[in-house]
Every structure is written in structure tokens, then in C-alpha cells.
Write a structure and sequence with these properties.
107 residues, mainly beta, 9 strands
């Protein structure tokens, strides 16, 4: 898997080639609170990550893996140690999560 480079300017997330990937919000101090992307350009959000307690690490993430406008993967940092430790997956896109996992050491 190769890493992509993104840039952030005035609430917009850009791919390395300058195309728009999504948006972001900041708290009063200018720290990033949330990032939303529309990677396939269909107008629906594909990925959202959020720093819900404003401590500098992301506590939640939702990913729409099949571009239907609904999140099939949810990740949460339940113990606030800076890594995701709980997950749920809707494997058949019916709106319910069939698979859940927990690892106190993080994924």
C-alpha cells in the first residue's frame, strides 16, 4: 500500500495533484477537529474522522466502503489513548454491523 500526500487550506483537503478530496473543520485554536472526504467524487462522503474531545488525536472514524452513502466501517478510540481499539463492520451493507472487534492495544 502506498501513502498519498494531502494538503489542507481554508477548510478544503486537496490531493497532491491539486484536486479536491474533501473538507475539514478546526476548533477555536486552529487544530483539526474533523476531516471528510469524497474520494470517488460522487457527492457523498466516503470517510469521516473526528477529534471529538479536542486533544489532538482522532477518536472516531466512519468509512463508506461501497459508495452507497452509508458507513460500513466504524472505528472508535474508546480509551482515549490515541489509537482505535474498537471496530464494527457491516459486511452485507444492510445497515447493521455483523462484525465487531476490540483490542485494548489498538489496531
Amino acid at each position: 500500500m502506498s501513502a498519498e500526500t494531502y494538503s489542507f487550506t481554508n477548510g478544503t483537503v486537496y490531493h497532491a495533484d491539486g484536486t479536491v478530496a474533501g473538507t475539514y473543520t478546526t476548533d477555536a485554536a486552529g487544530n483539526i477537529d474533523s476531516v471528510s472526504t469524497d474520494e470517488d467524487g460522487n457527492g457523498a462522503v466516503d470517510t469521516v474522522i473526528a477529534d471529538t474531545d479536542h486533544n489532538g488525536s482522532f477518536e472516531s472514524a466512519v468509512v463508506d466502503t461501497d459508495a452507497d452513502g452509508y458507513g460500513e466501517v466504524v472505528l472508535v478510540d474508546t480509551d482515549n489513548d490515541g489509537d482505535f481499539d474498537t471496530s464494527a463492520v457491516d459486511t452485507n451493507a444492510d445497515g447493521t454491523f455483523e462484525t465487531t472487534a476490540y483490542d485494548p492495544d489498538g489496531f
